[in-house]
Amino acid sequence: MCVLFFFFFLTRGLMPRTLDSQITLEKTPSYFVTREAPHRISSMSHDTKLIVVVRNPVTRAISDYTQTLSKKPDIPTFEELAFRNRSLGLVDTSWNAIRIGMYILHLENWLQYFRLSQMHFVSGERLITDPAGEMGRVQDFLGLKRIITDKHFYFNRTKGFPCLKKPESSSQPRCLGKSKGRTHVQIEQEVIEQLQEFYRPFNIKFYETVGQDFRWDSM
Ligand SMILES: *[C@@H]1O[C@H](CO)[C@@H](O)[C@H](O)[C@H]1NC(C)=O
Ligand SMILES: *[C@@H]1O[C@H](CO)[C@@H](O)[C@H](O)[C@H]1NC(C)=O
C-alpha cells in the first residue's frame, strides 16, 4: 500500500504545477507500515493528506514475492515463507510480504495521529478496471477539478492494463501495471484459500473502519 505509480504520473505534467510541492511521493509500501511514520509526519504537518493504494493482500503478497524472487532467485518458496506451520494454517505474520497486507493494523497506527477524513484509499483493482473513475475520486479528495478523465486513458490489450495517452514530454506510455513479461509464480489454490481465510477478519475490520468494501472477500 503506497502512493506508488499513481503519483508517479500525477506529478509528470498532468497536474497543475503547484501541486507538485505538496505531494510526497512514496513508491514503496514500506513507509506506510513503518511504526514511527505517522508520528513523524504528523509532527511536520497536521493537514497532510494521505492517499493509499490497496489491493487484495493475497495478490499483493504473491506479487511482492515474485518481485523479490526476480532479484534473489535463491530464496525459499512462497509457501515456506508464508507459513510457520502450513498444516496448522499458521501464517508467518513476521514476514513483510504478509504483514504489509494486514492493512487495518497499519491504519490503526495512522489513526492515532490523523483523521480518517485526511485519508483516501484507492482500490488497486478498480484502478485497472475503471482508472478514470478512481482518478476522479482522488481528484475530488484533493479538491481538484476532474482534469484526468476517460479520454486520458486507453486500454492496452497486450499488456492487459490501462495506459495513459502519451504525454508529449515522454516517449514511453505509462501504464497502470507491469507488462506481462514477468513470470508469475504458480501458487497452489489451496495456499491462496488459506491466506484469504487468514486475511478475512483483517479485511473486514479494514472495510468497516474505512467505510468502503474493497470486495477482496467476494472474489
Ligand atoms: C506442524 O504441526 C504439526 C501438528 O502439531 C506437527 O506435527 C508438525 O511437526 C509441525 N510442523 C512443523 C514444520 O513445525
Ligand atoms: C501495448 O503494450 C505492448 C507490450 O508492452 C507494446 O509493445 C505496445 O506498443 C503497446 N501498445 C500501445 C498502443 O501502447
Automatic annotation (TrEMBL):
<feature type="domain" description="Sulfotransferase">
    <location>
        <begin position="42"/>
        <end position="200"/>
    </location>
</feature>
<dbReference type="InterPro" id="IPR037359">
    <property type="entry name" value="NST/OST"/>
</dbReference>
<dbReference type="InterPro" id="IPR000863">
    <property type="entry name" value="Sulfotransferase_dom"/>
</dbReference>
<dbReference type="InterPro" id="IPR027417">
    <property type="entry name" value="P-loop_NTPase"/>
</dbReference>
<protein>
    <recommendedName>
        <fullName>Sulfotransferase</fullName>
        <ecNumber>2.8.2.-</ecNumber>
    </recommendedName>
</protein>
<dbReference type="Pfam" id="PF00685">
    <property type="entry name" value="Sulfotransfer_1"/>
</dbReference>
<feature type="signal peptide">
    <location>
        <begin position="1"/>
        <end position="16"/>
    </location>
</feature>
<keyword id="KW-0732">Signal</keyword>
<keyword id="KW-0325">Glycoprotein</keyword>
<comment type="similarity">
    <text>Belongs to the sulfotransferase 1 family.</text>
</comment>
<keyword id="KW-0808">Transferase</keyword>
